[in-house]
Amino acid sequence: MPDLYTDDNGNRVIDRNRGPAGPGVPAGGTTGQIYRKASNDDYDGEWAAPPTVIDAVLFAGAAPADGEFALYDGITGKLIKASGMTLTILASTFANKVDKSGTKVLSDVNYTAAEAAKLAGIDPEHFLGVFATLAALEAAHATASAGDHASVEATGSDLELYAWDATNTVWSRVGEPFALTGSDVADILFTAPAEWDVDDCQVFTAAEKIRVANSVQAADLIASGIGVAAYGGLYFFSLTAPVTPTISVVTSDGLDNMVKIDPVTSMNTSSTNFDNGGSNDGRLRYTGTDSRNFFVVATLSVANAALEPLVFAIAKQGVVEPSSRVQCVMTSATDVALVTVTALVTLTANQYVEVVVGNTTNLVSADIYSMSISATKM
């Protein structure tokens, strides 16, 4: 008899080709189990727990090292990559962190290394404080270091700032020391002829004006010959050992063949802007920086047993100043004459003056027992 069965539409149909019934799904099993092949044999199956499915891990680049955190790569959620971070590194990072202060906020201004170095160069210890007067500052700090500074403040007076001048070892005022206009200065200098004269004024260079504006001390002005007297003097004296310059050629009128008088001389200790020319042999040298007019005076004690006519003069840079010549003639072989020689000369830096002597008739020298030379700025 043909096999009958119901199709998907509920119709009963005859299936003449349907094979014999199989064994079907065996009874048994528990919730969650699956039926699986137990072997390669037909119809050999069994109930069993489902297998555990582990997805494969795909790496973008090198896999993380042991103990290293992994990070997702991209947005698929399927690729991971090495992070370079471990628990040890993380712990060290947190150990070195700086805690935020509750009263502070982050600055929106970048702070560079160069600015940090500049700030480090500002030493607050160089500020020595506030004083009522300059004298009080000098009493408290007779000496200081380069960069030290202080302020002088007093009721009713303008604030003054002073810095330590390490080169000249003095406190020097910083800024304009007085509030005078050019017109004010002109009125002071030229409206009282009995007290001031145009010739008394010096033309200041730009550098010199800055130095005066910064209260440069008198020692600095002395070095440049500005605004102070320049004076120099040297001397020789001996009762028993006169110096006798060698006169080898007769001079006719005191302008040629003159011989320098060169005893061992000493500088006058009050000399300013002058020295002995480096030789201590009767040469007086000007060391100021600006050209100046000087009145030069030389006084000598002279003996000449031969009673020869002698000529004395002032020489500048080895050249006789004609207006300084004087003649001396002895009347006794035992006389010691006093000779004075003067000259007006203009000296620039490192120029010198000295006294020279000549014999107008013979090659006979003179004995010089004393000699002094002085130069005073006009």
The pLDDT mean sits at 79
Structural class, please?
A: mainly beta
Number of helices: 6
| CA radius of gyration | 56 Å
Strand content: 25-35%
Distance between the termini: 162 Å
CATH architecture group name of the domain at 231-377? Sandwich
Outline type: rod-shaped
Brief overview:
With 378 residues, the chain is mainly beta.
Description of the molecule:
The chain is mainly beta and 378 residues long. Among the domains are: 46 residues; 43 residues, no CATH class; 147 residues, Jelly Rolls, CATH 2.60.120. Helix content is 13%, strand content 32%. The strands form 6 sheets. Strands 13, 15, 16, 18, 19, 20 and 22 form a 7-stranded antiparallel sheet that branches. A 5-stranded antiparallel sheet has the order 14-12-23-17-21, with no helix packed on it. α3 links the parallel β8 and β9. The chain is rod-shaped and about 185 Å long.
